[in-house]
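Quick question: what would this complex look like in 3D?
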Amino acid sequence: MTDENQPQMTRIQQKNRELILEGALGAFSANGFRGATIDQIAEAAGLSKPNVLYYFGSKDEIHKTLLTTLLDLWLAPMLGIDPEGEPLDEVLRYVSTKLQMSRDYPRESRLFAYEVLQGAPHLSEILGGRLRELVDQTVAILARWIDEGRLAPVDPRHLIFSIWALTQHYADFEVQVRAVLGPGHDPYAEAEIYLENLFRRMLEVEAGR
Amino acid sequence: MTDENQPQMTRIQQKNRELILEGALGAFSANGFRGATIDQIAEAAGLSKPNVLYYFGSKDEIHKTLLTTLLDLWLAPMLGIDPEGEPLDEVLRYVSTKLQMSRDYPRESRLFAYEVLQGAPHLSEILGGRLRELVDQTVAILARWIDEGRLAPVDPRHLIFSIWALTQHYADFEVQVRAVLGPGHDPYAEAEIYLENLFRRMLEVEAGR
DNA sequence: CTTGATCCTGACCTTTTGGTCAATATTTCC
DNA sequence: GGAAATATTGACCAAAAGGTCAGGATCAAG
């Protein structure tokens, strides 16, 4: 629909669109769509407001571009699940990767959190479309593993939800996590251990059963 | 600090403040603080904008009142954990109660989600104060149970985080959950089963170990 | 039924903010 | 080096939104 990756783009365009999206990521993830202002984005990008509007026609367009651009990065780890791998290892690796994404890309996590909280006005088609299909693929793999008795029988879709919820929680609610833990804690390091144990115990197929 | 539960309050005051807070809950939980407008709140409450401002001095005050008022409701279930009860039952009951809160009070869940996402500007003292103490109390109970070998050894604080994350996910990300599941699913009914199984398997102390 | 307190509102003010535009600067490319 | 394309901005606009206020309506109490 929207023009994307135009073949022709000057270096200046490339650089400035980059700067704008980077600034917008900070602004939107900190304040939500309504809370962020074009002025904030412009300042973060080191550009003037009209100049920002020169590259993106509207605040909405910046937001939409940002979301669609980052969606691939965000969903990539799920594609990393190897259907031929050892089931438990594959799931645990996915969990670990997602947790690291929360640690390394908390702004992205919050950006999506805001969007979905709001009712996903810019992502609704994607949620029921591409995302759903991607989940369905993964669910098929998980279901097969369960069928083969190599993974404890759990609802695969809710398994995926729980991975998302548990890992993104540490980015989206970081303030709360840190406040409750108090100083002297590394939330992500602790979470890594906790979550590995959680999913291992839930999904392991005990010999004696 | 702020005047609360003044002994004297006319029926009109009582009713209108109620209406305003109810309308504000809808507005704030749907759009976040910045996204909600006093006009929206006024309309939802069936009052004029100046009239809303007559009862609450500012938008900020409405928000703060709402948060502090609802916090008790929101945290109450944690106090329901009985230190003398059967450990696993107590935890599972807490999980189930929290999940029902997400189902029955999704607006409240989203209200807090927005607030924490934003960095909890109106709750920061509470997070590191009352909430933390409340968590510490519960952690003490859980730690004792683990010590007594009646619960599998897990980090109690992260156990609490995981309960929050997993239950509130169904309210905060409801759009996503429904989009991915597609029609013909009852997210909460399925979650109830899934989560009970999850926590049971994680926390159960197997005999043969 | 009167009077003081409470309640309510239309009109208005100010700030913020998304967005426009004409004019100017800069870059590109022949 | 100069024309055409591209990039940039100060000034401005209109709408949205938080908040004020004087005055009128309504209610409670004696």
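Answer marked as accepted. Residues 10, 12, 37-39, 49-50, 53, 57-59 of chain A lie near DNA strand C (CB under 10 Å from a C1').
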